[in-house]
Every structure is written in structure tokens, then in C-alpha cells.
Design a protein that fits this description.
This protein is an alpha+beta fold. The protein contains 9 helices and 21 strands. Helix content is 25%, strand content 32%. The strands form 4 sheets. A 6-stranded mixed sheet has the order 6-7-8-3-9-10, sandwiched between helices. The structure holds adenosine-5'-triphosphate (ATP).
């Protein structure tokens, strides 16, 4: 069991990195608390596997420290770190039975026969592998093999954490949800720190209590799935989380208004002060399609948009609207009528976010 602390960690695959883009991991400080179920979420190439391999010891970071329970482990080999890693493709011995595969790590640790038997049966039961214990691994399906891979990490009492690197890639879509649920149960039963790498937000939010969202080698937000949805701290979080993502609109600050294409969105005095004090021209507002208010008629707070497209998705509809150069998406309920031709929309103040240099300008909290 371990708390994993990444201290001033950075990694470049280049010999002499010079600029931020030369780093696969840009300097970060992060703590994975003991016993947490975490997802490391982000698009392809953002650095997820690099970070996981640094934690497990397969890769030496170019800068900074990895600490388990306060002790630096940079110089420890992977097998000395007591970390189990489950990869995209199952790593098991095809010529052995399921039982032998699960028992293998324990035999290496010189556990007694009785203890091995107890642990293997316990883990096999949780993973629903009991019936298959005496089947040779080469006769298993891909998802059964992946369950054995996971089981090999779970049998050991000495495991500090289990790292999953896109473990459901090879699994049939209809079995994915079952295995995800299984992982959740395993986490509850064994209370092990688990870090689950994925580029799929649904997988991340069904597995994890907290998601670390990575972008360009940085964790841009670490929080509960709901926080990432309701309060994205970076424009990329707004864009990446949600389907469709947040509407992000470039604006300029004119007095106490955020202005785009002639639309004036009022900001409160405190926000205006915070934005203008950052002295940047890179100002954006963000609002989720779920919170855009779509009306049939105009009022003092609305502006007219052309309705470009309506996508009916069963219990809700996604409308694509255009105002000047700006495309805006709105989500409405299935029974709400779509205005024909022109819709009048407003951006409710309580759901409007302001970003300077891509980072959220935080409201004062009382
Ligand atoms: N062995 C390597 N040598 C050089 N560059 C690498 C190496 N491995 C990864 N990179 C680069 O480091 C960056 C991060 O890659 P990484 O594989 O960690 O991302 P990822 O988020 O896991 O992507 P994916 O989801 O596609 O696996 C990318 O720009 C990638 O091209």
C-alpha cells in the first residue's frame, strides 16, 4: 500500500531538451493518495504511458523524484517497487494453467502452498475465474486472459499500487462494462491505490473517484468527474470532457463586458478586475451546451442565432447554432421544440466561465 508522490517530475526523451515542447512530461508535482481509485485521462500522445512507466520504474525520469510513502524510489528497479502493471495486451504464460499463472508471483515470493492456494482462490473468485483455474491459458478468450493479467497483480499482498494502461483495449465492447465494474469491486475489496490510464472519459468516470486530466505533458486538472464537468480549470478540460465539449469563445474585454461578434456578455466587477489585471489578450468564455438557454423569442439577454443542424439523440437533442463567425452547441430535452430558422439564446451567468491564457479565472469563494 502506498501514497505515490511525484515531486518536480519532468521527462524528455531528448538528450538536451530546451523548450517546453521537448518534454513528454513537463514539470509537475502530484500526489496519488493511498487507496484511491484514479484515472489518468487524456488524448493520444499527452504523456500518460510515460508517466505510468516512470511510476513503475520502467523509465527513469530526466528530472525530479518519485516517492512511495515519502521514500524516494528513483533508483529502485521495477521489481523492487512492488508495483503491478496491467498493459493493453495480457501478459501471461500461455503454457501454464490459470492457477499456475496466478500462483507464479507468489511462488517467487516463496509463499507456503496453503497461502498460495488461499490467495489464488480468493482472487479467482472475485474475477470469476474459478471455473477456469485448471484451463491452459492459451485456450482462454482475450478478456479471460486480461482478467488473469489483473489477477497476477492482485494476488500479491506486497503490492503498493496497480497501474492499468488502457487494460480494456482488447476486450469486446459488450464485456468492457462488466470488467470495469469488476475493477471497481476489486478496488473496494482490496483497498489498493489504482491508477487507470485511458483516453475514454466514460471509462475514466465510471472507474475513478478522481480523474487527472493530462494535456501536453501536464496534469491540467485533478478532481472528481463532476468537478471536471462543471468547473473546468483549463479550456482543454472543457473541450475534452462532455459530449459535445464546452463552447469556448474568444472574446475581448470592453469595460465590464466580454464581447464577441458584437454580442456583449456582462461580467461582474470582481471578474473584470481579475481578467484585466492579467494583462493578456488571450481571453475566452466557456459554457457547456447543457447550460446554453435556447428560446423561441428574444428578450433583453438573448442574441439571435441561425439554427444550422439538429441531432436527435433519443432523450435529448444537440443543436448547432451560428452567430457571426461563431458556432455554438446547445443541448435541449427531447420534448423541447427546436426554433425554426432562428433561435434566441442566452448564456446564464452562473454557468459562464472565463479563461485567460487557457486557465480558468476563479470566482471568489466566500
Ligand atoms: N520511446 C520514446 N522515444 C521518444 N519519444 C517518445 C517515446 N515514447 C513516447 N514518446 C513521445 O512522448 C510523448 C508522450 O507519449 P506517451 O506514449 O507517453 O503518450 P500517451 O498519452 O500514453 O499516448 P497513447 O495514448 O497514444 O499511448 C509523445 O509525443 C510520444 O511521441
Amino acid at each position: 500500500m502506498a501514497e505515490i508522490h511525484l515531486q518536480s517530475l519532468a521527462h524528455s526523451y531528448l538528450e538536451e531538451p530546451k523548450k517546453p515542447e521537448d518534454y513528454a512530461i513537463r514539470e509537475m508535482n502530484h500526489v496519488w493518495t493511498q487507496g484511491g481509485a484514479y484515472a489518468l485521462l487524456g488524448p493520444s500522445g499527452c504523456g500518460k504511458s510515460t508517466l505510468l512507466n516512470i511510476i513503475s520504474g520502467l523509465l527513469q525520469p530526466s528530472e525530479g523524484k518519485v516517492k512511495f510513502d515519502g521514500k524516494e524510489v528513483n533508483t529502485l528497479q521495477p521489481d523492487q517497487r512492488n508495483i503491478a502493471q496491467v498493459f493493453q495486451f495480457p501478459v501471461i504464460y500461455d503454457s501454464m494453467t490459470v492457477y499456475e499463472n496466478l500462483a507464479f508471483p507468489l511462488r517467487n515470493l516463496k509463499y507456503s502452498k496453503d497461502k498460495i492456494d488461499k490467495k489464488v482462490n480468493e482472487v479467482a473468485e472475485v474475477l470469476e475465474l474459478g471455473e477456469l483455474l485448471h484451463r491452459r491459458a492459451n485456450r482462454l478468450t482475450a478478456d479471460e486472459k486480461q482478467k488473469v493479467s489483473m489477477g497476477r497483480g492482485l494476488v500479491r499482498d506486497d503490492v503498493s499500487a496497480i497501474l492499468f494502461d488502457e487494460p480494456l483495449t482488447v476486450i469486446d465492447p459488450h464485456l468492457k462494462w462488466k470488467l470495469r465494474r469488476k475493477l471497481k469491486q476489486i478496488h473496494e475489496k482490496f483497498n489498493i491505490t489504482m491508477v487507470y490510464v485511458t483516453h475514454d472519459q466514460l471509462e475514466a468516470s465510471t472507474f475513478a473517484d478522481k480523474i487527472a486530466l493530462m494535456y501536453q505533458g501536464q496534469i491540467v486538472q485533478f478532481g472528481e468527474p463532476r468537478e471536471l464537468f462543471e468547473n473546468p480549470e483549463h479550456t482543454f478540460v472543457g473541450y475534452f470532457i462532455g459530449s459535445p465539449g464546452m463552447n469556448i469563445i474568444e472574446v475581448s474585454l470592453e469595460g465590464d463586458m466580454a464581447v464577441f461578434d458584437g454580442v456583449k456578455v456582462p461580467l461582474n466587477a470582481n471578474m473584470v478586475h481579475k481578467v484585466s489585471s492579467q494583462k493578456s489578450n488571450n481571453i475566452k468564455i466557456g459554457i457547456r451546451p447543457e447550460f446554453v438557454d435556447v428560446k423561441n423569442s428574444s428578450d433583453a439577454n438573448t442574441f439571435p442565432c441561425d439554427v444550422l443542424d439538429v441531432e436527435n439523440l433519443g432523450t435529448y437533442k444537440i443543436i448547432t447554432l451560428q452567430f457571426g463567425q461563431q458556432k455554438i452547441k446547445a443541448r435541449i430535452e427531447e420534448d423541447q421544440e427546436v426554433p425554426s430558422g432562428v433561435a434566441h439564446i442566452s448564456l446564464p451567468d452562473e454557468w459562464l466561465k472565463v479563461y485567460v491564457d487557457e486557465y480558468l479565472v476563479k470566482e471568489e469563494t466566500a
